UniProtKB/TrEMBL annotation:
InterPro entries: FAD/NAD-bd_sf, FAD/NAD-binding_dom, NDH-2
Organism: Halocatena marina
Lineage: Archaea, Methanobacteriati, Methanobacteriota, Stenosarchaea group, Halobacteria
UniProt keyword terms in alphabetical order: FAD, Flavoprotein, NAD, Oxidoreductase
Known catalytic reactions: a quinone + NADH + H(+) = a quinol + NAD(+)
Domain of life: Archaea
Protein name: NADH:ubiquinone reductase (non-electrogenic)
Amino acid sequence: MPPQIVVLGAGYAGTAAIRSLENELEHPDLVWVSKEPHHFVLHEAHRCIRDPSICDKLTIPIEDIKSDHTRFVRGTVTGIETEARDVIIDGDHTIGYDYLIIAIGSQTAFFGIEGLEAHALTLKSPDDARSIHDQITNAAKDATRDEPAQIVIGGLVSRAFKPRVRSLRGATK
Ligand SMILES: Cc1cc2nc3c(=O)[nH]c(=O)nc-3n(C[C@H](O)[C@H](O)[C@H](O)COP(=O)(O)OP(=O)(O)OC[C@H]3O[C@@H](n4cnc5c(N)ncnc54)[C@H](O)[C@@H]3O)c2cc1C
């Protein structure tokens, strides 16, 4: 019996791990666990903000990535028992492992800045991108020359916003 290898997460790291293990090992016993049944091409998420119809093209079903022998379990990892070598899924069931690869990404940091977590929009998923698109569009609809919409943004994603905001500017009252 080959050892059971469990990979957590279907982002870049988890997907690359699954593909590498499938290619390198002869008969691997692989279990792939993730919250969503797809890999999302996160670094292109800014394109969904401009045009939400692109989200579908950036969402790749797990079944199109993994081999037939790899088992996929959809669920949220809520704990890991290292002594027992068990991953806890959704708080109520476990998957045993011989080897475990943890690739569940990161959480957005708010650095303790007051009000930031309550008001900021994060960008980690297709739903986040659609939500940002909708909120900018709605803010632009409500804006006037005297009371313009105010958007605070930084980093790479700001590049994606500029054309969207520019296109809305002419549409404001
Ligand atoms: C808009 C944007 C643009 C970017 N552009 C670039 C770029 O140009 N170049 C670059 O190098 N990097 C870029 N990055 C950063 C890059 O996307 C991240 O470094 C990369 O996604 C990290 O990969 P990861 O696999 O570690 O995590 P993620 O891609 O975040 O994947 C985590 C996976 O784990 C799953 N998951 C999370 N928690 C759980 C849980 N509890 N249980 C089960 N599953 C869980 C998630 O659903 C997801 O499938 C960009 C990021 C963003 C947001």
